[in-house]
Fold this protein.
Amino acid sequence: MAGSWRVTLRVGGAIEREKFGSLEAALAELESRGRALQGETRAKPIDTKILGRFEPAQQVAARLELSGPGRGRSGVDVRGDGSAAAWTGRVRRQAVEERGTESPYEALRRVISA
């Protein structure tokens, strides 16, 4: 189905959405954009009076979200230190565990394709 997969990119207050005709094309774009963001993302620690201190590894600098027919939501968060973590779920996000030398993108691909 044409345009049946959507990648949503959230960086700061900016939101970009793009539609893809296949899961593989959507995953390729998600990985390409995510890796580029990992290379350019560096945050500083944030101190709040109420919630305490948040280190760059605890901050989500960018969220790449994948949605498609009957699949719910999943994606990759790029952290403030340039690391990335895959997740699934809409309201309650579940971390996707990486196996062996898998990247977060490979782990997401494995879970989505199952």
Remarks:
- Residues 5-113 form one domain.
